[in-house]
Design brief:
Shape: globular
CATH topology: Neuraminidase
Number of domains: 1
Order of helices and strands: EHHEEEEEEEEEEEEEEEEEEHEEE
Number of helices: 3
Radius of gyration: 20 Å
C-alpha cells in the first residue's frame, strides 16, 4: 500500500498496548481493596497467574512488520514497571516507574514510585548505568526534561525537579502547578512533551476533575478530556484543545503540527488549537471534526476497495516517524492471529 493512501503518510505509528488501561470502575474497586490485598484482581486472584518471562524471551514475542527490528534497551532490575520515558538533550533516558499503580497510598504510607535515569556510556545504544533521579513519588504518569530541569507529575501535582550539583539526582523539588484529580488513576496528567515554542504540553482524561492555576492568576477548570500546555516556570497554564475522552500521547511533525490519539477507540487526530473534540458530554464543534473509526482504520485491498482490517481499542501512545525510506517489503497487513 502506498504511503499516500493511508494515515501512514503522516509517519505516525500508534503504540497499542495495555498501558494504563484499567477501566474507571476497576480503579475504584482496586483502591477499596488495597489495604486488604496489595495486588488483588476483581475475582480475588493475584494480578497474573502466568509465569514471568525474561526480557529477551518477551522481546521475541513481538509481531513486527517485515524489515523492522526491536531492540532491548533496559530491563529489570534497572527499571521496574515503567510507565513513561523521555530523553534529555544529553541523550540520557529518564523513565518513570510505578509499583503503586493503580492505588494511591494512604497518608500513613510512604510512596514507592520513582524516576530513573539511564545512561549509555559506551554509545552502543544500551544503558550501562541506572540511577534514581527522584523517588518518593506516586504514579508519575508523565515526565519531560525541560530547560532548567525536569517536569514530572506525582499525585496530585506537577513538580519541577532540579539537579543543582550535577550528580544525577534531583536535590530540589518544587510544585509547578496544583492540584489535579486522581480518582481515576489511569487518566491523570500525562504525555508531557516539551516543544520548541517553550511550552510543555500534556493530556488529561475526562474522568478526573481538576483546577490548576499559574502564577499569573489564570486558572483552568478541567471537567473533560483535553490537551493543555504550561510554562515550565509555573507562570501560566492554559487549554490547547478541549474534548476527547482519554487522550494518550502527543507528538509533533517537522512543521509543528500536533497529533494525539484518544484511547477511547478513536483514531489519530491532528489537534487544532481551540478546537473541541467529541467526548461523553459534547459533540465536536466542527473544528474538532475527525474521521470516523471505520474510515481511519480502512485499507485498500488488491481490487482497490476499502476494507476494515481491525479496530484499535487501547491506543496508548504515538510518535512521529521521520524515516522517509521504509523497507521495500513493508506492507500493511493484519497482525497474525
Amino acid at each position: 500500500m502506498r504511503m499516500n493512501q493511508s494515515w501512514i503518510q503522516f509517519g505516525l505509528w500508534v503504540v497499542v498496548g495495555l498501558v494504563l488501561t484499567m477501566a474507571p470502575r476497576v480503579s475504584t474497586v482496586y483502591a477499596q481493596q488495597r489495604n486488604a490485598n496489595p495486588r488483588p484482581n476483581l475475582d480475588g486472584q493475584r494480578v497474573s497467574s502466568t509465569p514471568a518471562r525474561a526480557a529477551h524471551e518477551q522481546q521475541r514475542s513481538f509481531h513486527l512488520p517485515p524489515g523492522f527490528v526491536i531492540e532491548l534497551v533496559a530491563s529489570e532490575p534497572q527499571i521496574i514497571k515503567p510507565i513513561n520515558l523521555n530523553f534529555d538533550a544529553s541523550g540520557r533516558l529518564f523513565v518513570s516507574q510505578s509499583v503503586e499503580y493503580p492505588f494511591v497510598p494512604s497518608p500513613d504510607q510512604t510512596p514507592r514510585d520513582a524516576i530513573k535515569m539511564l545512561v549509555d556510556t559506551d554509545g552502543d545504544g544500551l544503558t550501562e548505568t541506572a540511577s534514581t533521579f527522584a523517588d518518593g513519588l506516586t504514579i508519575p504518569v508523565g515526565l519531560t526534561p525541560s530547560p532548567g530541569g525536569l517536569i514530572g507529575f506525582s499525585v496530585p501535582n506537577l513538580y519541577h525537579f532540579k539537579d543543582r550539583d550535577g550528580d544525577g539526582r534531583a536535590d530540589e523539588r518544587s510544585i509547578a502547578y496544583q492540584t489535579f484529580g486522581y480518582g481515576d488513576t489511569h487518566g491523570m496528567v500525562g504525555s508531557l512533551t516539551w516543544w520548541i515554542d517553550g511550552w510543555v504540553y500534556g493530556t488529561h482524561s475526562n474522568n478526573n476533575r481538576s483546577v490548576a492555576r499559574g502564577a499569573d492568576g489564570h486558572a483552568i477548570d478541567i471537567k473533560t478530556g483535553h490537551i493543555h500546555r504550561f510554562r515550565p516556570d509555573g507562570s501560566r497554564i492554559e487549554f490547547f484543545t478541549r474534548g476527547q475522552v482519554n487522550p494518550f500521547g502527543i507528538t509533533f511533525d517537522p512543521l509543528g503540527n500536533m497529533y494525539s490519539v484518544d484511547s477511547h477507540t478513536k483514531p489519530i487526530s491532528m489537534m487544532l488549537r481551540g478546537a473541541y473534540y467529541p467526548d461523553f458530554f459534547k459533540p465536536h464543534d466542527r473544528l474538532g471534526l475527525r474521521p470516523d473509526d471505520d474510515a481511519s482504520h480502512a485499507r485498500l485491498d488488491g481490487s482497490g476497495r476499502h476494507r476494515v482490517l481491525r479496530r484499535g481499542s487501547v491506543s496508548a501512545g504515538l510518535s512521529w516517524h521521520g524515516i522517509h525510506r521504509q523497507p521495500r517489503d513493508r506492507t500493511d497487513q493484519p497482525r497474525p492471529t
